[in-house]
Amino acid sequence: MISHGKDLKIFSGNSNRALAEAICKELRLPLGDLECGHFSDGECFVSIYETVRGSDVFVIQSTCSPVNDSLMELLVMIDAFKRASAGRITAVIPYFGYARQDRKAKPRDPISAKLVANMLTTAGADRVLTMDLHAAQIQGFFDIPVDNLLGSPLFVDYFKARFGDDADNTMVVSPDVGSVARARSFAQKLGMSMAIVDKRRPKPNSSEVSSIIGDVQGKRVILLDDMVDTAGSLCGAAKALVELGGATEVFACASHGVLSGPALQRLEESVIKEVLFLDTIPGKPGVKSDKIKYLSAAPMLADAISFIYHEDSVSRLFV
Question: What are residue 171's DSSP bridge partners?
Fold first, then answer.
């Protein structure tokens, strides 16, 4: 018996409507009738044009650029559903903004990821479904259930099909020490060895490679990260792997393609042959690159939504 809501309804904000529509297509459900707009002074408003009383509501909204507008839209939508007597409200946040502000890096810093967690809970969210949090401990910032899906299985399927027969000549590389656990699991699933790029950050959005841990000489390498923002770290690591390590080809993949500032130009000018992203953040409108490819996260998110609605275990998606 499903006790939390009489039916399943999916709604979307403005940040990534295409992904929401793809999820609905996977689930064979219509996207909920909701208008999310802005008044002339910038305030956002939400109007729900169908009943949600007692329903199990899933609100899909990546908190990507414009980050604060996307976050505020999500909070207002959650509040609207709560006041409309929804049975349960799940915030589906494919890309969780502010996740990099998860600790105090220096005195008097805020911990903004915790603040966002508090805001979502206060607005009325009953649970959160997200993908590849920058730091897994952010799940502990919430006092409600959080399901943090991993995008790596989608990349595993892609690279197995492409390089599975040549695993001995291909290596997975972690772009920094903090991503070692993620890269190790990825390499094990692909049956490949692993290397690490050791770097330091003299200032935000800037990094310098100090050494490469592992032998990538004559190897094809796959850089794995959770997100690419300005692409400085990724492109710097790729350059070091070729010039210092002697790698023959560099591929890269990351769940979230933030791609702010000079990211696109850096990727185009880099030694990276191909970059894979998930569609947790929509691609830049009007910008096309032969190097950048997107895989759809919709099937995985749709499965997770279905499991949550039917009160089944979501853990099978982490394999």
Answer: 193, 221
pLDDT in tens, 80-135: 999 999 999 999 999 999 999 999 988 999 999 999 999 999 999 999 999 999 98
Collect all residues with Cβ–Cβ distance below 8 Å to 26 and sequence separation of at least 6: 298, 299, 302, 303
Residues forming a β-bridge with 223: 173, 252
CATH code of the region 8-150+299-318: 3.40.50.2020
Is 164 assigned to a binding site?
A: no
Question: Which of 25, 82, 199, 203 is an active site residue?
Answer: 199
Which CATH architecture fits 152-295?
3-Layer(aba) Sandwich (3.40)
> What are the beta bridge partners of residue 46?
36
Tokens in use for 187?
Answer: 């390499």
Is 199 a known active-site residue? yes
Domains in the chain: boundaries: 8-150+299-318, 152-295
Q: Does 208 belong to an annotated binding site?
A: no
CA distance 48 to 44: 14
pTM above 0.85, yes or no: yes
Q: For the chain, where are the alpha helices, taking DSSP H only?
A: 17-27, 67-83, 112-123, 152-163, 180-190, 232-243, 263-269, 298-309
